[in-house]
Amino acid sequence: LHSFPTRRSSDLVTQPLSNGGATFNTATLSPGIHSLSAVYNGDSKFGTSTGTATETVAKGSTTTALTASPSPGTSGQPVTLRAVVTPAGATGTVTFQEGNTTLGSSALNNGVATIAFTFPTGSHALTASYSGDVNYNPSSGAATEVVNPNNPLTNISPVTLLAAFVGNQYSVTFTATGGVPPLTWSMPSVS
Fold first, then answer.
1. In a designed cystine with 92, which of 61, 87, 103, 133 is the match (CB 3.0 to 4.6 A)?
2. Which residues of 19-33 are buried (b: 16+ CB within 10 A; e: fewer)?
3. Under DSSP, is residue 11 helix (H, G, I), strand (E, B) or coil?
4. For the segment 20-47, what is each residue's pLDDT rounded down to a tens digit?
5. pTM, whole model, 2 decimals?
6. Rounded to whole angstroms, how far apart are CA atoms 114 and 100?
7. CA gap 90, 60 in Å, rounded
8. DSSP H/E element including 76
9. Does residue 145 contact residue 116 with C-beta atoms inside 8 Å?
10. Where are the alpha helices (DSSP H) in 27-181?
């Protein structure tokens, strides 16, 4: 029989020989350097022997995707920055930045990290940087958010109401340009 212990005694397994060899497959080794050994127990004709090997397990790669919502935004309104890190099993934190300025950070929850931030008017080049963990390497993603000015209402039409007569009903549709939704309408009472 061949035994394949790793550096943890709980990983010891015993495999039968087949054509002079034995194979053991595992996906449970954590990233790092592992010292492995295979011990042949011998039989009635052959004595015992041991072989060793070193296995280096690399960290897994990740990707980070960054989105901003709403896009474009409006001055004075918060923008939600959302980073999605794959694979979803990654843990750790995501740091959101504009250039060298840190906007905030958030822990991953099922592969997703979010923050809300209020930007001034203009174009903003943003990045989301995943820190990595014991199993996965860091990664980053980028996005551009454009924030438009919060303009007041610039026009309401029509500006002239139709003639009204007692006992008659009519409707008028008003169209406004500028401003930030939701808009509130009011009609003063007239006589």
1. 133
2. eeebeeeeeeeeeee
3. helix
4. 788 877 777 788 888 888 888 888 888 8
5. 0.64
6. 19
7. 9
8. none
9. no
10. none
